[in-house]
Amino acid sequence: xxxxxxxxxNRESLAHKVRYAASRPDRIAPYLKxxxxxxxxxxxxxxxxxxxxxxxxxxxxxxxxxAVGSQTHERWLALGQMQFDYxxxxxxxxxxxMLDIGxxxxxxxxxxxxxxxxxxxxxxDISPDILIAAKRTLTERGLQAKVPxxxxxxxxxxxxLPDAYFDVVHAHSVFSHSPIEIIEECLAHVxxxxxxxxxxxxxxxxxxxxxHQVLREDxxxxxxxxxxxxxxxxxxxxxxxxxEKLGHGQSKIRVTA
Length: 257
Ligand SMILES: C[S@@+](CC[C@H](N)C(=O)[O-])C[C@H]1O[C@@H](n2cnc3c(N)ncnc32)[C@H](O)[C@@H]1O
Hints:
- Residues 99-200 form the Methyltransferase type domain.
- This protein is an alpha/beta fold.
- The chain has a single domain (14-256), classed as Vaccinia Virus protein VP39 (Rossmann fold, 3-Layer(aba) Sandwich).
- The chain has helices at 14-23, 28-44, 48-62, 64-67, 73-89, 109-115, 128-140, 180-193, 223-232, 241-244; strands at residues 98-101, 121-125, 149-152, 166-171, 194-206, 212-214, 218-221, 236-239, 251-256.
- Helix 2 crosses helix 3 (48-62) and helix 8 crosses helix 9 (223-232).
- S-adenosylmethionine binds at residues 49, 52, 56, 68-69, 101-104, 107-108, 124-127, 130, 153, 156, 172-174, 177-178, 182.
């Protein structure tokens, strides 16, 4: 499938907003409603993690599947399948240990939990509300015997996790919602928890133009910015060309120690 990414738009610019509003007038009212809610939440929570946690609480109350970015259950299933298939095609074995950063309500997580050996899946998230929804997914799928870890976190220092432990670290659609300081915090610490030969895959919203953000919810980065940041922390970063062929809206980078 061909990629439908718009790599040059600056969604923050007034010109883009006017053009977009003219082409999609049905989206104006929902956008204004979301913008008003986000302003209020940002006013109450100047710190990004607290702000985004409040966004997730509000979105999850309405619909946990939409809160992780899937407007229908079919899309929720398909997006989880895509993440799962990709890693299995890249050699994920049942004996691997996996850290899923920003695991959400286990859109992909339940498939990894089902596939991996008991206790080998470790999901972390900043949102208590989405982790409660994750436990519901786990129960609905009957995966209790796989005893996954589902843990709340406030930062990405990963200091509560052991050295050289995880074969795969994964963050799907998390850095697309993260300011650069949070991405850097993760890259500064992920090398310590990666097992020898392990890798860290993350997706991001890519631009080839000016880096920008929308409503402090969606962040657009140049590939070079993220690969340079990985290098600064002694990691090798590779743009995953084969992921582009799947037609997902975000791009993927693989980091190794
Ligand atoms: C779009 S959802 C994707 C969830 C899951 N990875 C998936 O693909 O279904 C983003 C998730 O990342 C979480 N998140 C956002 N920023 C985070 C951070 N700095 N650390 C950990 N989780 C974060 C959100 O709470 C949310 O559950």
